Amino acid sequence: MERRVFLRAAAPTAAVGLAGCIGSSTPTDYDVGMGAKEFRPETLEVTAGTTVTWLNTNKQGHSVTAYEDALPDGADYFASGGFDSEQAARDDWSDSSGGTMFEGQTFEHTFEVPGEYPYFCIPHERGGMAGTVVVTAETGTASETTTTN
Fold this sequence. Notes:
alpha+beta; 5-stranded mixed β-sheet; 4-stranded mixed β-sheet; 9 strands
């Protein structure tokens, strides 16, 4: 009987330990994760030409939506759902939750123009879920900065 109790307790632990060895359905290669009401990191610094990947690491639905009026001159607008403007993203979110990223889904954008790119999550904007990608012209490696409120 003791053996069965041991196996019942050990099996889930072994399965979790082996999960990394046999693969996972959740992507692990991303630059910005999403918590309940936060982007992690809140600020990410990259060089021009870098593609940034956001991953919804939370069970809640989120969006990545640029503050259009704050983008650098000549920069492309970006939003999960492929919208051409902030207003289109907000309207579609209100109508049908368009642009929603569910747990495990990713969104990518390539930043070509140096400057600061503030963005937010539409459903959690009032809760302060916002972030910034800082794009430099210098070559180097990506870095992250955590800001406390």
